[in-house]
Amino acid sequence: MNRLLKISNTVLTLLIFFTLILASCRSGGKGGKKDTDSVAVSGADAAVYEDIKQAEKIFYTLPSPLESAMLIKSAGALFDDDLLNPVENTKNYNSNKSMALNLGIYTCDLSFASLYDQTQLIINYMNAAKKMADGLGILDAISDEDINKLEENIHNTDVIMDIVSQTYLNSNSYLEENGQPAIAAIVLTGGWLEGLYISTQLVDMKEFNGNKLVGRIIDQKLSVDILIKLLESSKGHPAIDELITEVNRVKVVFDKITIKTSPVRPEYNPATNVTVLKSEVQSDLTPEVFQELSKMVAEIRSNLIK
Amino acid sequence: MRRIIVAPILILLIAAWGLSVNGQCKAFAKRTCLPELGSYIHDGNYHATVLSEGEEAELYKTFYSDMEYRLSICGDEALPAVQFTVIDAEKKILFSSKESNNAKTWDFKLESSQQLRLVIKVSSSGQQGGIPATGCVAIMFGFKIKT
Question: How many CB atoms are closer than 10 A to CB A1?
Answer without folding.
Answer: 5
